[in-house]
Write a structure and sequence with these properties.
The protein is of the alpha/beta class. The chain is built from 28 helices and 22 strands.
Length: about 775
C-alpha cells in the first residue's frame, strides 16, 4: 500500500529560510548563501520522507515566496512595470513582484482560499506574453534525483492558475484570464517535456479551484486543458490534487472522466462529502485514489482507527493496489516537528501531531492496509484519543453555560451608528479626515531581545515594564510629532496579535517552535485551543492606561477579535467552531468593558481574519457569517454610545461580504485597499451605502516602498469620490511591525501631509 504527501512546510524547523531571506533582502548575504540554505532544507525533507517510507514524495513545493508566484515566474507572466526583458527570472524580478521596489509597487497579495497563507495574485491581460522563464520545477526534481530520491514534481494546475488571476492594470475589468488557457498550455508542455527527459514518472497538478462553485464554462476548461496536454503527458502518471473542501458532484464527474489522468487526490477531512460521492457515484476503474485522511491544516493526532476504517471502505471500491494514503492538503499549514517542543506538557503533547508526525501517520496507515499494522503505535494513538476526550482540563461548565445563553439575543448596541458617531465626535473633537494607524509599530531587535529575556527570566518584571514603557513613550511622542489624531501604543509587549491574547486566556496551549508561514518570510506561531476558553484577568488594560496617560490625544485600546483569534489558531476539533468562537467573544467582551472603565474612549477589535474563514462553498457561507458577525457584536454590545469601536480587516476580497461587514455595526472600520488596486472602492461606486466611519488603507505596509504625499492624496481623492467626507479616515493598510522606522517615519509623514492638504482644499470649497 502506497503513501503520499501533498506538500511540506518550507520555512524549516527553526525558521532557517525566514532568516536567510531577510539577511538576503537586507544585503547581509548573497544569493548563493540563500540558495544553499534552501537546498540543504529541501534535501533534508526529502531524506526524512524517504527514511519514513513515503513512496510518493513531492518536489517543487519549496518556494522563496509563494507557489503561485513561482508559477507566474515559470510562465514569464511579469507585469510590464518590472521591466522584465526575457530569460530566466532571477531574484531581482521575483522579489520585486512580491515586495515592490523603490520605484514600483508590489503585486496584489491575498489569502490562499480559506487559509492564513497568502499568495501573489497574477496580473494578466490579452497582450500578456508568456515564455518558459523559470526552470525551478525541473531543477528541484533533478536535485532530488541526484540524491537517489524519486519525487513527484508539483505544479499549480493551468486552470487554477488562471482562475486565481486578475486583469492587469489598464485592462478591462471584464477581461477573463481563463481566456488565456491556450496561451499558457504550450509553456506547460515545455515543462512536462523537460520533466519527462529528466526521468520523472509522475506529475502532480494542484487544482484546488475544483472545490469551488464553478460555472459550466470554468469546469469545461479542465476538460479542455487536460485533453490538450494528454499527448504531452503520455508515458507519465498524472495526479490531479484537490483540497480544502468537497469536490462538487459536477466537478467530480468531469475530472474523473479525464482520460490522460492516472489519479485523483481528495481532501477527506474538510471534504467528507466527497467520500459519499466516491461511494455513490463510483470511481473510474484502473485509476488511483489518493485519500487525504491525515489533516494537513491542524495539529491534532489522527484518529488512526477511524481513518483505517475509512480506508478499508475505499479499498473495497477502488482496489488494494489503487488506493494511496495521503494528507488532506500540503502540510505547510501546520507546524514542522513536535520533537522541537520542549515546554508542552506531556498530556497535551500526546494529543498532537505536527508535519513530521503526520508523515509517520500516513505511512503507518499505509502499512496497516498492507497487513503490517504497528499494533503498539495504533494502541498508543487510541490511548491518546481517549485521554483527550476524558481530560477534565478540556471542559469548563460555567463557560459552556454562558455561551449557550447567548442564543437569545443578537447583541446589538441600542443606538444606531449615526447617533453614536455624533456623540463620539462631541467627545473626541476630531478633524475631518482623521488620521490613525492600525496598531503595531516596528519591532526592533532590542525590543524582541527584551521580550525574549523576560520570558527566559533573565530580567525582572520591573526591568521589563520599564523597557516597554520607554518604547511606548517613544511611539507616543513620534505620533504626536507626526500630528496623528488617534494614537496607538505600538504593541511593544506583543510578539503576535493572537499569541499575546491566547497566552492570557484559559483553554490555550503554546509552542516554542510551532511556526507556520503566512507569506514570504512572515511566520506566525498559532496558539492551540484545546479546551473551553475564558479570561482569568485583564489582558491589556495596564498598558492601555499607561499609554493614555502619556498624551491628551485619544489612545486606542488594541484587541484581537474572537473570529480572528479562532481562525489564526489551531482549533479544537471536538466541538463546532462557532461554539469556541462564542466563548472567545465573551472573554473579549470582559476586556472591552474593563478598557472602557479605565477611560479608554476608542477601542479597536481587529477582525483581520473574518473573511478568511468564509467557507469556500456558497451554501455554507450564510451560516458562517451569521455566527462570525454575531461574535463580533457580542464583544462590544454593552459599551456606551461615546465609546468608539473600531475594527480592522486586511488582505482578502471583501466586496462579496460588504453587507455582513455593515452588519458588524462597528463605529469605524479600517480595511486593506491600496495593494488590491482599490478594489474595495468599487462596491461603493456600485451604490452600497455605508454610514459608519471607514478608513480604506492609503498605502501598502507589506512593501518597503515609501509613497509620496501626492500619491496618498490621489488615493484619498478617489475615496472621496465615493464616500462622504465626514466618515472617511486616513490610515495605512495594516500594522507596521514588519517595517523599519526608516520606512515608517517618512511614509506616515507623507500620509499626514496628504490629509492636511485635502482638509485645506475641502475647507476652501465650502
Amino acid at each position: 500500500m502506497a503513501s503520499h504527501i501533498v506538500g511540506y512546510p518550507r520555512m524549516g524547523p527553526k525558521r532557517e529560510i525566514k532568516f536567510a531571506l531577510e539577511s538576503f533582502w537586507d544585503g547581509k548575504s548573497s544569493a548563493d548563501d540563500l540558495q544553499k540554505v534552501a537546498t540543504d532544507l529541501r534535501c533534508s525533507i526529502w531524506k526524512q520522507m524517504t527514511d519514513v517510507g513515503i513512496k510518493y514524495i513531492p518536489s517543487n513545493t519549496f518556494s522563496y515566496y509563494d507557489q503561485v508566484l513561482d508559477a507566474t515566474a515559470m510562465l514569464g507572466a511579469v507585469p510590464e512595470r518590472y521591466n522584465y526583458t526575457g530569460g530566466e527570472i532571477g531574484f531581482d524580478i521575483y522579489f520585486s513582484m512580491a515586495r515592490g521596489n523603490a520605484s514600483v509597487p508590489a503585486m496584489e497579495m491575498t489569502k490562499w482560499f480559506d487559509t492564513n497563507y497568502h499568495f501573489i495574485v497574477p496580473e494578466l491581460g490579452p497582450n500578456t506574453k508568456f515564455s518558459y522563464s523559470s526552470h525551478k520545477a525541473v531543477s528541484e526534481y533533478k536535485e532530488a534525483k541526484a540524491l537517489g530520491i524519486e519525487t513527484i514534481p508539483v505544479l499549480i494546475g493551468p486552470v487554477t492558475y488562471l482562475l486565481l488571476s486578475k486583469p492587469a492594470k489598464g485592462v478591462e475589468k471584464s477581461f477573463a484570464p481563463l481566456s488565456l488557457l491556450e496561451s499558457i498550455l504550450p509553456i506547460y508542455k515545455e515543462v512536462i517535456a523537460e520533466l519527462k527527459a529528466a526521468g520523472a514518472s509522475w506529475i502532480q497538478f494542484d487544482e484546488p479551484t475544483l472545490v469551488l462553485d464553478l460555472e459550466s464554462h470554468q469546469l469545461e476548461a479542465f476538460t479542455k486543458a487536460y485533453t490538450e496536454l494528454e499527448s504531452s503527458l503520455s508515458g507519465l502518471n498524472v495526479l490531479i490534487e484537490t483540497y480544502f473542501a468537497d469536490v462538487p458532484a459536477e466537478a467530480y464527474k468531469i475530472i474523473t472522466a479525464l482520460k490522460g489522468v492516472s489519479g485523483f487526490g481528495f481532501d477527506l477531512i474538510r471534504g467528507a462529502k466527497t467520500l459519499d460521492l466516491v461511494k455513490s457515484a463510483g470511481f473510474p476503474a484502473g485509476k488511483y485514489l489518493f485519500a487525504g485522511v491525515v489533516d494537513g491544516r491542524n495539529i491534532w493526532a489522527n484518529d488512526l482507527a477511524s481513518s483505517f476504517s475509512t480506508l478499508q471502505a475505499l479499498e473495497a471500491i477502488v482496489g488494494k493496489d489503487k488506493l494511496v494514503v495521503s494528507t488532506s492538503c500540503s502540510l505547510m499549514h501546520t507546524a514542522v516537528d513536535l520533537v522541537n517542543e520542549t515546554k508542552l506538557d506531556n498530556e497535551i503533547k500526546s494529543w498532537l501531531a505536527f508535519a513530521a508526525q503526520k508523515v509517520v501517520e500516513v505511512n503507518a496507515l499505509a502499512k496497516a492496509l498492507a497487513g503490517q499494522k504497528d499494533e503498539a503505535f495504533f494502541s498508543a494513538n487510541a490511548a491518546a484519543q481517549s485521554s483527550r476526550k476524558s481530560s477534565p482540563r478540556v471542559t469548563n461548565e460555567e463557560v459552556q453555560k454562558a455561551a449557550a445563553a447567548l442564543k437569545g439575543s443578537d447583541h446589538r448596541r441600542a443606538t444606531n451608528v449615526s447617533a453614536r458617531l455624533d456623540a463620539q465626535q462631541k467627545k473626541l473633537n476630531l478633524p475631518i479626515l482623521p488620521t490613525t494607524t492600525i496598531g503595531s509599530f516596528p519591532q526592533t531587535m532590542d525590543l524582541r531581545r527584551v521580550r525574549r529575556e523576560y520570558k527566559a527570566n533573565k530580567i525582572s518584571e520591573e526591568e521589563y515594564v520599564k523597557a516597554i514603557k520607554e518604547e511606548i513613550n517613544k511611539v507616543v511622542k513620534l505620533q504626536e510629532e507626526l500630528d496623528i489624531d488617534v494614537l496607538v501604543h505600538g504593541e511593544p509587549e506583543r510578539n503576535d496579535m493572537v499569541e499575546y491574547f491566547g497566552e492570557q486566556l484559559s483553554g490555550f496551549a503554546f509552542t516554542v517552535n510551532g511556526w507556520v508561514q503566512s507569506y514570504g518570510s512572515r511566520c506566525v506561531k498559532p496558539p492551540i485551543i484545546y479546551g473551553d476558553v475564558s479570561r482569568p484577568k485583564a489582558m491589556t488594560v495596564f498598558w492601555s492606561k499607561m499609554a493614555q496617560s502619556m498624551t491628551a490625544r485619544p489612545m486606542k485600546g488594541m484587541l484581537t477579535g474572537p473570529v480572528t483569534i479562532l481562525n489564526w489558531s489551531f482549533v479544537r476539533n471536538d466541538q463546532p467552531r462557532f461554539e469556541t468562537c462564542y466563548q472567545i467573544a465573551l472573554a473579549i467582551k470582559k476586556e472591552v468593558e474593563d478598557l472602557e472603565v479605565a477611560g479608554i474612549q476608542v477601542i479597536q477589535i481587529d477582525e483581520a481574519a473574518l473573511r478568511e474563514g468564509l467557507p469556500l462553498r456558497k451554501s455554507e457561507q450564510a451560516f458562517y457569517l451569521d455566527w462570525a458577525v454575531h461574535s463580533f457584536r457580542i464583544t462590544n454590545c454593552g459599551v456606551q454610545d461615546t465609546t468608539q469601536i473600531h475594527t480592522h480587516m486586511c488582505y482578502s476580497n471583501f466586496n462579496d461580504i460588504i453587507h455582513s461587514i455593515i452588519n458588524m455595526d462597528a463605529d469605524v472600520i479600517t480595511i486593506e485597499n491600496s495593494r488590491s488596486d482599490e478594489k474595495l472602492l468599487s462596491v461603493f461606486r456600485e451604490g452600497v451605502k455605508y454610514g459608519a466611519g471607514i478608513g480604506p488603507g492609503v498605502y501598502d505596509i507589506h512593501s518597503p516602498r515609501i509613497p509620496s504625499t501626492e500619491e496618498i492624496a490621489d488615493r484619498i481623492n478617489k475615496m472621496l469620490a465615493v464616500l462622504e467626507t465626514n466618515i472617511l479616515w486616513v490610515n495605512p493598510d495594516c500594522g507596521l511591525k514588519t517595517r523599519k522606522y526608516a520606512e515608517v517615519n517618512p511614509a506616515l509623514t507623507n500620509m499626514v501631509s496628504a490629509a492636511k492638504v485635502l482638509r485645506t482644499q475641502l475647507a476652501s470649497t465650502k
